[in-house]
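Revision sheet: structure tokens.
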Amino acid sequence: MKGFAAIACVVSVSTAVVSGSAATSEIIDRVMAVVDGQPITLSDVDAALAFQLVTPPSQADPLAGMLDRLIDRALMLAEAERYRPMEPAPEQIDAGVAAIQLRLGTAAALDQKLAAVGLLREHLRRWIRDDLRIRTYLDERFGGSTQPRDAMIRDWLASLRRRADITTPYVAPSAPGKLVHPPAARRM
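Predicted:
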């Protein structure tokens, strides 16, 4: 899967123009960040926003806020994978899908939104499965109390960010709604 994700980083496809030798490029997706070799694309950010898969950001640039949350999620998932938390029951995953469907109203609305962001139900189920595994890992590592737990998780995430190889080609725009790509990627 990791090898496939790296190949999926290809963000444009060139097509030859029949009437001449010029070629044009069509943007398929944008790489917003790379976390330890794993890309986070604009499609990932759009899906997370559309399905509220991650707590929506409260900052002025929702893309930058969601990207930060997806970077944290990628770091937590990688850490959880190292310790192999118990697999969630299929019923838990079904309940997660049902909760999203309830928010959207109908199964048809869910399917329509999945199609709009280019996901299959299986992708959504895998996302929910990974979220449940992250939650299990956090519960095992940090216990259940809220106040000290939140601070401990923030400190732990800051530590993960310091150790990780994170590149973010996306830079928050000065004008809302515009993507800006600097000549060189930022490293966090």
